[in-house]
Specification:
Oligomer: single chain
Radius of gyration: 19 Å
Number of strands: 12
Strand content: 15-25%
Pfam families: NMT1
Family: Belongs to the bacterial solute-binding protein SsuA/TauA family.
Subcellular location: Periplasm
Keywords: Signal
Helix content: 40-55%
Distance between the termini: 39 Å
Structural class: alpha/beta
Number of helices: 14
Protein name: ABC transporter substrate-binding protein
């Protein structure tokens, strides 16, 4: 436990240091740089990872939701959700697609972030096929999640939401999360890591999960459905400093992205179509992709669940009340 706390503190210190460094070298990246008058669209940069959950941002752009709100939105690809946090603090991003874990890690230490909308929830249908799953490497001998003690598992980010979900799922299945080694690997590189034997298992999301299945790799667990059914997944968060300085533009982004998430929930074919514009997946892989359960709702209870679970697993050092984290205009 003490080791985990030290790691969390070290990671946060690095994030803060990165924030300071980025702020020092990006002074020209003002979010107001494009506004030349009342009629000029506000320039907004949004960090996303190229997975199905990001579809609402691209749909909002295609359908004119941002234009209707007088916003000029530029998506910026980030390697992982955690990487977006220092970019939000430096002003390089105004909003980002991030899970609850890095959000609460940062805000529990005083960094100003705000949640403006939900994006999706973990499927609460135990019989459903999920768009994210734990896949075993050939030759690993793994057949179920409780067998992971002593094994190496790839997640998209250390101290991330996927790692926390894995730890909860392992313990609930009768394993011991403290005996599992987690390593950070980007989603596009997970299948090759499994095939080379670099890791024993990986928590992969679509469209990469479909690629893993096509290569004959075996799914041994659906941790999100098994351990956290119905819980809030990805969020749309913003820089608290920028929101305070630009409340009307922040409210405009909130309206547009919420509308887009709701549209995505009702139009799965549109989600698959837009995915072809920002992922490198084949048409076949996109067709086989299991889409997220899009849901724009987010509550204080949602955030409290994550804060309490993070405390239990040593992701944060002390109890944290996230009741003010959800921003309202």
């Amino acid at each position: 436990m003490n080791g985990s706390r030290r790691r969390v503190s070290t990671l946060l210190a690095l994030a803060v240091a990165s924030t300071i460094a980025l702020a020092g070298c990006s002074g020209s990246a003002s979010p107001d740089a494009g506004a030349s008058g009342d009629s000029a669209a506000m320039k907004v940069s949004v960090g996303v990872t190229p997975i199905p959950n990001a579809a609402p941002l691209y749909l909002a752009e295609k359908l004119g939701y941002f234009t209707d709100e007088n916003l000029d939105v530029t998506p910026q690809i980030v390697a992982s959700a955690g990487a977006a946090v220092p970019l939000l603090q430096s002003g390089d991003l105004q909003f980002a697609e991030v899970s609850s874990t890095p959000t609460i890690t940062a805000t529990s230490k005083g960094l100003p972030l705000r949640v403006v909308s939900g994006d999706d929830r973990y499927n609460d249908d135990a019989s459903a096929t999920d768009g994210a799953a734990l896949v075993a490497a050939k030759g690993s001998g793994l057949t179920k999640i409780s067998e992971l003690n002593g094994k190496t598992v790839a997640v998209v980010g250390l101290k991330s939401g996927p790692e926390l979900v894995m730890r909860v799922a392992i313990d609930q299945a009768g394993g011991d999360d403290s005996k599992v080694k987690f390593v950070e690997i980007a989603y596009p590189d997970m299948v090759s890591a499994l095939e080379s034997g670099r890791v024993d298992a990986a928590l992969i999301t679509d469209p990469f999960l479909s690629q893993a299945k096509e290569k004959g790799l075996t799914v041994i667990s659906q941790p999100y459905i098994d351990a956290m059914p119905g819980k809030a997944g990805i969020l749309w968060i913003g820089s608290g400093n920028w929101i305070d300085q630009n409340p009307e533009a922040a409210a405009a982004f909130q309206r547009a992205i919420t509308k887009a998430v709701d549209y995505a929930a009702e139009n799965p074919d549109a989600v698959r179509d837009i995915m072809s514009t920002y992922t490198k997946s084949s048409k076949e892989a996109i067709k086989a992709t299991v889409l997220p359960v899009f849901d724009s709702s987010i509550t204080a209870d949602d955030m409290k669940y994550w804060a309490d679970t993070m405390l239990q697993y040593g992701f944060i050092d002390t109890a944290y009340d996230p009741s003010d984290l959800i921003w309202k205009p």
